[in-house]
Amino acid sequence: MDIIAQLFAGLSLGSVLLLAALGLSLTFGQMGVINMAHGEFMMAGAYTAFVIQGVVGDAGVSLLLALPLGFVVGGLLGLLLEATLIHRMYRRPLDTLLVTWGVALVLQQVARDVFGAPNVDVRAPAWLSGAVEIGGLALPRTRLFILALAIVCVVALALALRATPLGRRIRAVVQNRDLAEASGISSRATDRVTFFIGSGLAGIAGVTLTLLGSVGPTLGTNYIVDAFLVVVAGGIGQIKGTVIAAMALGLMQAFFEYSTTASVAKVLVFVAIVAFLQLRPQGLVSVRTRSLA
Amino acid sequence: MRLRSTSRYGATRLSTVSLAALCVVALSACGARVDAGSDTSASAESCVDTSGDTVKIGFLNSLSGTMAISEQTVHDSLELAAQEINADGGVLGKELEIVSEDGQSEPTVFAEKAGKLITSDCVAAVFGGWTSASRKAMLPVFEAQDSLLFYPVQYEGLESSPNIFYTGATTNQQIVPALDYLVEQGTKSLFLVGSDYVFPRTANKIINAYAEAHDIEIVGEEYAPLGHTDFSTIVNKVKSADADAVFNTLNGDSNVAFFKEYKNVGMSADDMPVVSVSIAEEEVGGIGIENVEGQLTAWNYYQTVDSPANTAFVEAFKAEYGEDRPTSDPMEAAYTSLYLWKAMVEKAESFAVEDVTAAADGVTFDAPEGEVVVNGDNHHIAKTALIGKIGADGLIHTEWSSEEPIEPDPYLEGYDWADGLS
Amino acid sequence: MSEMSSTEQQPETEIDLAAAEALLGTDADRFKHDYLEVRGLRVEFDGFVAVRDVDLTVTQGDLRFLIGPNGAGKTTLIDAVTGLVRATGSVSFGRTALLGRSTHRIARAGVGRTFQTASVFEELTVLQNLDIAAGARRAPLTLLRRRPATPEAVEHALETVGLTALRDVPAGVLAHGQKQWLEIGMLLVQDAHLLLLDEPVAGMTQAEREETGQLLRRIGSQRVVVVVEHDMEFLRSFADSVTVMHQGRVLAEGTVNEVQNDPAVVEVYLGAPTQGDLA
Amino acid sequence: MTVLTTLLRPGRTRTLAAFGLAAVLLLLAPLVLSPFRLDLLAKFLCLAMVAVGIGLAWGRGGLLTLGQGVYFGLGAYLMAMHLKLADAGPGGVPDFMLLYGTGQVPGWWEPLRSPVSAILLILVVPAALAALLGWAVFTRRVRGAYFAILSQALAAAFAILLIGQQQTTGGTNGLNGFRAFFGYDLADPVNKQMLYLIAAAVLLLMVAIVRQLTVSRFGELLVAVRDQEDRVRFLGYDPAAVKVVAYVVAAVMAAVGGALFVPIAGIVSPADVGVVPSIGFLIGVAIGGRATLLGPVLGSIAVSWAQTSISEQFPSGWIYFQGALFILVIAFLPGGLASVAGKLRRRAPEGSPA
Fold first, then answer.
1. Residues of chain A positioned with their CB less than 8 A from the CB of C46
2. Which parts of the chain span the membrane according to its record (chain A) (predicted)?
3. Which of the following CATH numbers is that of domain A2-279: 1.10.1060, 3.30.230, 1.10.3470, 2.60.40?
4. pTM score, two decimals?
5. Which among A16, B30, C251, D146 has most CB atoms closer than 10 A?
């Protein structure tokens, strides 16, 4: 019974990590941009949910409204970041890490000045409170919702990448930027769209986090390191790797935490990732190219 | 070619010479050595200037970083107390001049800024600190400089520095009464949940000792890293342990995630009440009233305390900072700390540290929480313990009271079961 | 090439074959047992077979050209020999098996290569580039010292590739052709016994090509040299023998004349008109 | 001819002059600064030591290490443990262990009782960890962003580990309250001055070491590895070895900085070693000019100074300021202020390989 409960806890944590990392793997995969402000885009999504709840009132309606609007808010922030800073730095991917760290600092402080330093409360709708009992096992509805939402996001993204012309362009640029440009794909436009979608996913992740934890200026920093580890372990350029890595990390954390403590579990997960990268330096799944890296 | 290498040696020589010079100066500048064991540190001469119409005091709170959420509130109530005192003629006729510093939520910065306030700004006393880490960081600074710190937050005890006055609760004024209350309610088993740092660890050590002596079973003890946000595993353990109550020493954001998860798996105060010692009125809003309604807290002050002094304090605070701002225990303790210092100074008729500490014993103040008395031996104050229940209005209502102020006992020397704890 | 403009005022450079003599020495016997032998080589990328069943033998004194349409597997073959991509089969140089070794060990075994896009250390000077190339066998501790004097081999290489006057210029500002010469110079000071050159004359002027060809011929007389090249004019002038690759396989091998008249080769090149002018 | 130009090349004379000037300024500081300000400066010098190492690893070697806090912390904690044991006297138990721990000194603390082995461990432990981690990571060609993220996760894991072991590491409280530094009373202002001078001398020594490394063949090789790692491999070098050396040197410098930080600041806590301070180390390096010799030192000191003085005036202003610095300097001035100076003189940045 405990094992099944932990299995669910792990998958649930994995789905949270997946939502946080999905957008990252897109922007990191396509442009090599390491967006440390991704966590703050999540925070922006969470505050979007807070603001909407303040306006709408009903927790259920506001949650359903917040998901698309969080996507738009996160996406617009990403677009702004891309247009003002990132686009001039594609040749210096490592430097984007530091620039976006600066952006993250500023966004956090802005949130503090606008919404105040204390956490704010976003109520969960009534239909998400409590748990579903299955054979004596209580599965919290919020976590089931997040799991389902993560699946929806992954499927939607996979379909978008596979079946739409836009998706094909994105995949082409991920796999070989120069070749794609040579074949007439405007990588500028594709980059913008990718950044919009990737950052928008952060916004969605932020909205869902309001169901689980605190909504405050530092919401994003709690997730950013883990999200990057997921991307690194998963490998660049394919959703599959990100999904597996997120779930593996979630399960590892849950089971290590169960048998040791939460602190030790975090350290063990890190050790496991370093060991894993010894076996697969490019992550779980990687698009191999012939070019001299 | 020869010339080129000469220039290289030239480079080496210059750097060698300057290095050597520095080393020589460094070694010749050695000061006093300590004899092992003896404590003969030469304390610096105080530079506090009381000749004018004003006297400087320092406020040292984290106004940025993760702790700013909590410490800003303390800072605000300190400012309020200073304003009131100045409006009322100051201390010994001198107006208070505030030097405010930001501790940036980092112990190292607290130590640095404490040094600055004492030696550069020459303040007569410093008020502030929140985390145990920040207090521990400042303690040696205040002792070395023989200056005064007023620390306004409940903490883990096991400390009494001659240079610190502790106006928050020590363990026998908060944790022990909370356990007494639980025993009174018939609690037979407890689950301990805490953040992984010094206060929860020490608190749980005390709880374990208490439990052993009072026939309570500790069915689980879990720690989450500070800032931990995923509590499904820990809440799973709590749920399956099925204790009579949960004793919660989690800190900050973790409380939000814990209580949301607690509610999400379908548990409430009716099934398994949670007694928290770090959730005050400020935090309730952020956690969400619906998630903590009916849960218990242990403090020495609530905004709902019914006393003329508290009515005045709450009114003044809301007038200054807004109707929506609640008042909480650490804020009240900070507010009280400034008045206590004023009372000590006035009793001693001096701002000098040794005079103030000498006069401290027995100084009283009619604080919002009720009358408090300074214990001159351990520098803590006698406080009344209050167990509260979080109401639907977001405020905390007294459920149980120790009735009398409890004498501070930071080392729990007066409790038989606590032998061997420290 | 934006770098071109910055080199306008620089002195003209040219290959100095006499200096090459000093560098290479005349003792051809030293290399006479050197040969590259590739057997049953196969390279796969995610299910796509880029090189299959390739056999290739190149001996010292035979300036071998490797040609074929884009995607024929020429560069992949070189990548496999130098350990950049994983391959199956066998590759040996002299008595040394290369396959499965790490790249830097293959390089230490005397295998050197250049890249399609000239790849030099742009922030370092020409001299520093050559000095690094010359130094792989230096004891680690000597690395911690400043360069006492320009090593003799580096001086000769500078003269050979005509960059003596530009020795203290950052390699990044060199013209394209000069960079490629610098790369060849680096191979020489590296003392590579097997040189794999990927399009060494691309982007060069006619005069530069001529000089490069002469130098390659001089090197090839002593060492094992394989040149990947599209330029048929250049090939006809300098190749001793030619291997034609197509779709990952060896299509034909022989002298320039033999290959030109091979019907299979003609068909492949007619089938890919952009590669054109073989005839 | 070339001899003369070499001798007179501005890069070298300028570096020498700057080095001499820095030494003189550092020597004069105790005469003009108040004890409190001198203490601050000494602290900044310790942080600058980390920056010198980062300048080598990141500026020269392209290794964006977001985890230098780990090595800083290792050095600092090892020193702090020694000071704690020394304060407790022979066979004594540090105060916090009596309060929160078992009252027993754990076995792995014991080697730090002796001053000699403490100093050795301060140098060896960080070097060994950096060598092990660097070797594991670099030989598998984990690089660029992957390395940066791993090093950052290392910092996060290290801080969590320290916090979790409260009984033996002091937890969030860290270690503090040291009375003496190798027998010298830390409350004595004269000894504080001595500590400052030691820090200044060590910093200058580090700058000299990095200077020697950058002008040596190793320095050229490091730049080559940074720009074209695979090309270097084809020349017969193992780039992993080159990177490991740079990483280890940077780690040791950070550790020494940490070790000296402890007696000067009087405290080390997990807040000094985690993700945020680790990234914080980089901004000074970037501002000063990551690939230059003195840039990281000056940049780091300037940033530390700005942090202290700005936060005195506007507490939350510092966060905006720091964020803006990261954005503006990295995005628009990747060469740091040194490149501005260089552009003004229409010359290559100082310290570029001669």
1. 288
2. 6-29, 63-81, 144-161, 193-215, 227-251, 263-279
3. 1.10.3470
4. 0.89
5. A16
